[in-house]
Design a protein that fits this description.
This protein is α+β, with helices and mostly antiparallel strands and 136 residues long. 25% of the residues lie in helices and 46% in strands. The protein has three helices and seven strands; from the N terminus they run H-H-E-E-H-E-E-E-E-E. The longest helix is centred in the first third of the chain and has 19 residues, at 4-22.
């Protein structure tokens, strides 16, 4: 159904989502290049070190619970580079369960680079915005 490269990229995205849910910062860090750059709306570019520091603050028993879904809409591979276009929805539930979860969603464009036979995230631009709480 998918080429081997596309299947590997799709598996990387799924592994990222599973590791994020589990709070496994080291597993997530192993999925990106050393020179990765994250682009976020209204914020300066985030480096690998910035990402790792933020991720560690969000991991642990007293941290918010993070869950999400990534709907991959397109993957294109060109030699040692590839991109994936997807729709990401992330739900952040504060610890203790007293506050309402924050839901952010929107399009994402991720660029991957093949290093030593393995696809890694090299650039990521997400345009997630806070979604209005749904009426219960």
């Amino acid at each position: 159904m998918y080429s081997e490269d596309e299947a590997q990229i799709r598996a990387l995205i799924e592994t990222w989502m599973v590791a994020t849910r589990a709070g496994d910062v080291e597993a997530v860090m192993g999925l990106m290049t050393d020179d990765v750059v994250f682009l976020l709306p209204g914020r300066p570019p985030m480096s690998r070190a910035d990402f790792q520091a933020a991720a560690k603050l969000q991991a642990g028993d007293t941290s918010p619970r993070i869950d999400g879904t990534s709907e991959i809409q397109e993957v294109q591979v060109a030699g040692g580079w590839a991109f994936a276009r997807s729709h990401l929805k992330v739900t952040i539930t504060p610890p203790g369960g007293g506050a309402l979860p924050i839901v952010r969603a929107g399009p994402v464009l991720s660029v991957f680079r093949k290093e030593q036979g393995r696809w890694l995230l090299a650039r990521d631009a997400n345009m997630l915005v806070v979604q209005a709480p749904s009426a219960a």
